[in-house]
Amino acid sequence: MRKILIIITLFFFVFGTKAYAFEFNSPPKKIIIPSLDISLPVTTTKIINDTWDVSYSSASFGETTTIPGNLGNTVIFAHSMPHLFNDLPDIKKQDIIHVFTDKDWFKYKVVEIKIVEPEDINVLMKNGNYELTLYTCIGNNWEKRFIVKAILISSIFPQSF
Amino acid sequence: MISYFNNNFMKCKKKVKHLYNYLFLYSIYNFLNIIFILGKCISYPFSLTYNIFVKTYRTLSQYVLLLTKSILKIIKSTILPIIPKVKIAFIIFIAIYLAYEAHCFLSSVPNPKKISDFKTPYSLNIYDKNNILLYSSYAGRFRSPVSLKSISKKLIYETNKQSSIEISNKLSSHFYFFRKNEPIKKQVLVFNFLKNFNKQELICLYLNTKLYGDYAIGIEAASQIYLGKRSLEINENDIKILINNSNKNQKIVHPPYKRAPIAVNYVLKSIKQKYGEDITDRKLDIYTNIDIGVQNKLQQDLIESNEDFYKNLISKKIENSLVITKIKDSENNIVFKNNVYISDIKINN
Q1: Surface of B (221-240) touching A: CB under 8 A
Q2: Could you tell me the residue range of the domain that residue A96 belongs to?
Q3: Is B133 on the interface with A (CB under 8 A)?
Q4: Residue B300 touches chain A, beta carbons under 8 Å
Q5: Does residue A4 sit at the B interface (CB-CB below 8 Å)?
Q6: How many structural domains does chain A have?
Q7: What's the CA gap between A105 and B60, in Å, rounded?
Q8: B280 and B229 fall within a common domain
Q9: What are B86-131's pLDDT values in tens digits?
């Protein structure tokens, strides 16, 4: 009798429900900016000693920021090297940025360009919008930070309250 | 070594025993719960008759006070002498029966409490090789509920001008839009809405379930599809555009999201050629051999290649690699498999 009860309970656990809505779980894998001829692979980086560990071979996606497709601010950054984000300061407003994950393809439009101090964390805050911020070093001795803010164009509908 | 093993084994056994006991208690609890529900079912009609008499008296007391004197006069003069006192028991029995009938009718009236209780039209879903969802159409209409915080205040202000009875009247018509029309229940449903929600919740439901044109259910979907904005950023001009959206031929600024858009468009086009334009109104699951990883890489190549020659080549490469493997009906009947049409697609309404 007890065995049957266990089997019945397990039966309900095992059978999952079929997904009828989009779920965005995977982190970004590639970033393409056609106007600057930038196309880079993206790797996720963890926080080590209170700072993000930046890779020298690819652009990096901050792990604690939101995954693209969800409401929030996704942050992608790289060193200002010739094979990375060196040409990023030439970007203009209304330019289009493509971000790819394993399953999805998102288009972003550039809205805001600015230069801030490295201590300015307001740039990373969430504004209740589908946002993307790109992040590199600029200036003498790379002492300041160059920031590009973009907003999602491709229409994604939130599925529930 | 053996003792260590034995100790561990005993620990495991204890845990399992605990689980057994838990399940046994749970089954007893469920049994008692069922008895409780049965008892409730038996006593419910009696308590309900009492409730109905009391509540109707309370609600209608204002009117009753005005009419009592005249009604009493009529009863004294005409009805009372006719009815002998023996038949009063019979009348009470009929009253209880009528109350029971009323209870049956009222319980059959739908009582929506969430937005998910509102029915959506049938959807056509396209899946890839590994059963990942690529495209889902709510019969060409798209639904995206949002809370009041993310709707612009001007629109809320304009809908707030209407009374809550008017809004719940419209809500009941929204509720029956994709169902069989039942005119009496539709009127009763208005009171259910008034009972369940306050005015702000009513406005939120109303804006999220309204049909805007042919494509959008709800304000968020409408503003994204027709205006290319989020519903927070709507102006006064945009409100006028959205209200007048009743034509079938409208401009769509942002088409709804698809994974692997070129491949999905090709599948939709080929199905529409075979079965006609109305195919998206039916509930179908279409399984294809599309590999989303490969499609994404081809898409990246397409963006990076600037010349038209390469673009055409890549888009042809995407189209030629496509095969529809399976199409399933709403009742999980396989309609189509490996280029063999088993039967024509049925219409489900």
Answers
A1: 221, 224-225, 228, 230, 232
A2: 26-152
A3: yes
A4: yes
A5: no
A6: 1
A7: 61
A8: no
A9: 677 788 888 888 888 888 888 888 888 887 778 777 677 888 888 8
